[in-house]
Design goal:
With 162 residues, the chain is an all-alpha fold. The protein has one domain. The chain is 75% helix and 0% strand. It contains 5 helices and no strands.
C-alpha cells in the first residue's frame, strides 16, 4: 500500500463511509436487542451514538488488514476477528442500556454466537474470493483488449474501406 496524501484521504473517506454504515447496523441491532430483552429505557442517547461511531471506525480500520498483501490471510482473519471482538465488547461495556458486565453467561453466549457467525462468513467470503480469482485467471481481461496501435489500425482499415 502506498502512502501518499491522496491514498490516505481515499482510505480515510472509505473508513468513514464504512463506519457510518456500521453505526446504523449496530444501532439497529442494539435497539432490537434492547426491545427484545425488555429494558425499560430503550432510547439510545447521543453519547451512545458517538461511542458506536468510534467503535465502527475501529471496525472500518480493521478492514484494512485485508489489504496488506504481505500479511498471511489466516493472520489477517485472526487480527480482524480480534479487533471486532474488542470493538463490540466496547459497545456493550460503554452502553448504559446493556449491562452485560453483570451477566457474564449472556455475554459469553453472545460472543459464541458472534464467533460462529464470523467463522461461517469468513469461510464463505474466502471461498467466494478464491472462486472469483480462479474465474478471473481463466479469462484474462487483457487478452481481449486491443492495444492502441491495433485499435488505430483497425479504425484506419475500416475508414479506408468506406
Amino acid at each position: 500500500m502506498k502512502f501518499s496524501i491522496r491514498t490516505i484521504a481515499k482510505n480515510l473517506y472509505e473508513a468513514i463511509r464504512s463506519a457510518s454504515l456500521y453505526t446504523v447496523i449496530i444501532s439497529v441491532f442494539l435497539l432490537v436487542f434492547i426491545a427484545e430483552t425488555g429494558f425499560d429505557s430503550a432510547a439510545i442517547v447521543f453519547r451512545d451514538y458517538v461511542t458506536i461511531f468510534l467503535v465502527s471506525l475501529l471496525i472500518a480500520f480493521a478492514n484494512f488488514l485485508f489489504k496488506i498483501k504481505s500479511l498471511p490471510k489466516f493472520i489477517s482473519y485472526i487480527l480482524h476477528y480480534s479487533a471486532l471482538v474488542v470493538s463490540l465488547t466496547a459497545v456493550f461495556i460503554f452502553s448504559d442500556k446493556l449491562l452485560l458486565r453483570q451477566n457474564t453467561s449472556q455475554a459469553f453466549s453472545l460472543l459464541f454466537v458472534f464467533t460462529v457467525i464470523y467463522v461461517i462468513l469468513a469461510i464463505l467470503f474466502y471461498v467466494i474470493k478464491r472462486i472469483a480469482k480462479k474465474a478471473s485467471s481463466a479469462f484474462p481481461v487483457k487478452a481481449c483488449e486491443k492495444s492502441a496501435k491495433e485499435q488505430e489500425q483497425s479504425e484506419e482499415d475500416y475508414h479506408s474501406i468506406l
